[in-house]
Design goal:
There is one protein chain. It is built from one helix and eight strands. It has 104 residues and is of the alpha+beta class. It has two domains: 40 residues, no CATH class; 46 residues, no CATH class. Bound molecules: zinc ion (2 copies). The site of one zinc ion has 8 residues, from loops.
């Protein structure tokens, strides 16, 4: 993030790192240029906006491997009937699924 803003009067690069602490609700504040000492208005744009979510690892109930993308009973249909675990890694799930398929 660029923490400096150019003074509209004299072009001096003012350090804004302190200004953000008492930011008003409309994201604007007045700042006095540290060079020419004239006040100007600074508008802060919080951009870009990132959103984040937790990465949750669960253990496969069959082989114990940790996976971010498990096959879960209740979210996958049809869940093969002979699988008595509720959470499997993808490879265990596919293997089990294949076994069931082979029985038919
Ligand atoms: Zn200035
Ligand atoms: Zn597994």
């Amino acid at each position: 993030m660029n923490d400096t803003v150019e003074c509209p009067y004299c072009g001096h690069e003012n350090d804004m790192s302190d200004g953000l602490t008492d930011l008003s609700s409309d994201n604007k504040f007045d700042h006095e240029c540290s060079c020419c000492e004239r006040e100007f208005e600074v508008e802060v744009e919080f951009d870009p906006i990132y959103s984040a979510s937790e990465i949750v690892y669960v253990s496969c109930e069959k082989c114990g491997v940790e996976t971010r993308d498990p096959a879960k009973k209740g979210s996958i249909f049809p869940w093969p009937q002979f699988i008595d675990q509720n959470t499997l890694c993808r490879s265990c799930f596919l293997r089990a699924h294949q076994e069931e398929y082979d029985k038919c």
